[in-house]
Design a protein that fits this description.
By secondary structure, the protein is an alpha+beta fold. Helices cover 41% and strands 18% of the residues. The protein binds ligand ME8. Ligand ME8 binds next to strand 1, helix 1, helix 7 and strand 11.
């Protein structure tokens, strides 16, 4: 069966912000996931260009409405193209085909007796393009949805018999408990319908910027109500009312929307479809809002964050990962650079990037970059079972749009990989002359990473492509079938070195740091330090101690520095993507060989220094007395990068 995934079509009254990017990222991820599984998938996005709101925005900008719509629509399309959003069609409601399709639908509903002409007197909110009965207004005047003031409008109007579909809608919700996702959102919709549906005004005479009435009605005073026009995009994009070849994709599998427009999609839209005798979508997925300092981010409030700015600073795939991982589907989330940086450093750089780095390092050292999975099953059934059970659990999360759970589970694979390395310590096995065991662990971890990359590819398509290149395989429906469904292992292959995927981010990269951020400006900290240092007894605050980042490191390589009596050059694994180079004055006390594969304590946030022309990116903790120097080490082996403090 084919799949059809949609985003809302975005109003062209302002450029995209990260809320729009979020919906688009989720939909794009689902579409890519379906394609990975080999499903014939159609993914639609586009812009909503009619209605009073757009007309007014164009006037404010002193532009003809169409020109204004063209310009803003292009900014959305260009942004999605830059972000490599894999849409199959970008629809605009000013497209001629769309307008014809809407007119056709109007005729069908009218002929069926579902549309009739009457008068409407009510309170209209231009921002929401919605009428409200007086009983629903806040303080008798303000819009219950956006809080703006409404105006009284009396117009001749065509009405859609929404009330007729009350029972059918309630039955549909009851028979299809997964129609609205997350399920917790269904009740508000059901209660709204149970409260009684009023027929819906579906034309306007007070302005002209909308789809004209069908000629057969011979009533050009009216234009279509923007929500009727907009909702129908989901079928006109497939050719409804024109060339209907793509209508085979209908009904939609997943229609993603923000919770602000759930009612339109879960009540009006299914009722329109029933009237048109078309099947209803399988799922409407309503996600929460991105807020800024606790307030919904919106174009009209002007408190928006530009997705382009964030992606220029941090990379679009890091942003995608962050948004999909950070917030449980359906809930609101506050955007902060600090949270984004934390996820980049800990999950992307430490967990994922580091694993690839370890595979490259170990395979290079032990087997000239050649990996063979032949012995993996012999030594690693425990890890393979654990890995398969994680992989089997993933589909259910994606089907219910819970990208945060999907990624959370997926990350368990990296723990399995990193833990296997710690437990089986291939470097020890190499020393004990158990090369096949050491290589089996390296191959296991390469397989873990390969499988994880296949499943991560819908979220981070580019990054996982680079990982696949490093591991010498291709991510596509074939590898999905073999590695995920059939649970096969990769055959003999060569590892390729690639540049670091996720350089660590030490400081916020965007100037305008959201207010809610906990990171204080650096200067404040320094000043505080000065004051405290003038104390007679030199006591420091605990916070000052924690300004020093101390970490456990594993020495991977060590060599003497020629012409230096004191210095050794070490490569120390701190659980980061790349080992750090540390130049230490310990040559008189330690031989390089005695240090490899031992652990040390490292000051990890010192500014890099140059010693005899070599960069040193850390300092080892050591104790020195008249008997000489000894390194300070953890009492028991600890994972590289474990914080000390
Ligand atoms: O409503 N957080 O268009 P729109 C998360 N044209 N998502 C947000 C968001 C936020 N702060 N702000 C907006 C319309 N969105 C209509 C839709 S569909 C037939 C017509 C996202 O430009 C979210 O998906 O106001 C929301 O539903 C959509 O943008 C609204 O975009």
């Amino acid at each position: 069966m084919s799949k059809y995934i949609t985003t809302p079509i975005y109003y062209v009254n302002g450029e995209a912000h990260i809320g729009h990017a979020y919906t688009t990222f989720i939909a794009d991820t689902i579409a890519r996931y379906e394609r990975l599984k080999g499903e014939d998938t159609f993914f639609l996005t586009g812009t909503d260009e009619h209605g009073q709101k757009i007309e007014e925005s164009a006037q404010k900008n002193n532009k003809p409405t169409q020109e204004f719509a063209d310009e803003i629509s292009a900014t959305f399309k260009n942004l999605w193209d830059e972000f490599e959003i894999s849409y199959d069609k970008f629809i605009r409601t000013t497209d001629e085909e769309h307008k014809r399709g809407v007119q056709k639908a109007f005729e069908v509903m009218y002929a069926k007796g579902d549309i009739y002409k009457d008068f409407y007197e009510g309170h209209y909110c231009v921002s929401c393009e919605t009428f409200f009965p007086e009983t629903q207004l806040t303080d008798g005047e303000f819009c219950p949805d956006c809080g703006r003031s409404t105006s009284v409008v009396k117009e001749e109007s065509y009405f859609f018999k929404l009330s007729k579909y009350e029972d059918a809608l309630l039955k549909y919700y009851a028979d299809n408990p997964d129609f609205i996702l997350p399920r917790s959102r269904a009740n508000e919709v059901i209660n709204f319908v149970k409260g009684g549906l009023r027929d819906l005004s579906v034309t306007r005479t007070s302005f002209t910027w909308g789809v004209q009435m069908p000629e057969s009605l011979n009533d050009d005073k009216h234009v279509m109500y923007v929500w009727l026009d907009a909702l129908l995009n989901y079928v006109t994009a497939l050719g409804y009312g024109n060339d209907e070849a793509n209508m085979s994709y209908w009904p939609a599998t997943a229609q993603l929307v923000g919770k602000d427009i759930l009612r339109f999609h879960a009540i009006y839209w299914p009722a329109f479809l029933m009237s048109l005798d078309l099947p209803l979508p399988k799922h409407i997925g309503a996600h929460g809002w991105w807020t800024r300092d606790g307030e919904k981010m919106s174009k009209s409030k002007g408190n928006v964050i530009s997705p382009k700015e964030v992606s220029d600073a941090y990379g679009v795939e890091n942003l995608r990962y962050f948004m999909l991982r950070e917030v449980p589907f359906g809930q609101d989330g506050d955007f902060s650079q600090r949270a984004l940086i934390d996820r980049i450093n800990s999950e992307l750089s430490n967990d994922l990037g580091n694993l690839l780095n370890r595979i490259i390092g170990m395979s290079g050292k032990y087997s000239d970059f050649e990996i063979d999975s032949v012995d993996v099953i012999k030594y690693h059934t425990k890890e393979i079972d654990a890995m398969n059970s994680v992989l089997d659990s993933l589909d259910a999360f994606m089907q219910s749009f819970q990208t945060h759970r999907y990624l959370e589970e997926l990350w368990k694979l990296f723990s399995i990989g990193n833990k296997a390395i710690e437990e089986h310590a291939p470097w020890v096995k190499m020393k004990e002359d158990k090369k096949d065991e050491a290589l089996a662990t390296v191959a296991l971890v390469a397989n873990v990473l390969a499988k994880a990359s296949v499943m991560l590819s819908p979220v981070m398509p580019r990054t996982t492509q680079t990982i696949a290149e490093a591991l010498n395989f291709t991510i596509d429906n074939n590898s999905y079938k073999e590695l995920i469904l059939e649970k096969k292992l990769l055959k003999l292959f060569n590892i390729k070195k690639v540049p670091p995927l996720f350089p660590r981010v030490e400081e916020p990269l965007m100037n305008e740091a959201p207010k809610a951020e906990p990171n204080k400006p650096k200067q404040e900290k320094k000043e505080q330090k000065k004051v405290d240092n003038t104390e007679k007894d030199n006591l420091i605050e605990i916070g000052q101690f924690f300004e020093t980042s101390l970490k456990v490191g594993t020495v991977i390589e060590a060599e003497e520095v020629a012409k230096s009596k004191k210095l050794l050059k070490l490569q120390v694994d701190l659980g980061e993507e790349q080992p750090r180079q540390v130049v230490a004055g310990i040559k008189e006390f330690y031989s390089p060989e005695s240090l490899v594969d031992t652990q040390v304590c490292v000051v990890a946030n010192l500014k890099p220094a140059k010693l005899m022309g070599m960069i040193s990116e850390g300092m080892l903790l050591a104790a020195k007395d008249e008997d000489g120097l000894c390194l300070v080490r953890p009492e028991k082996p600890k994972k590289a990068g474990t914080p000390i403090g």
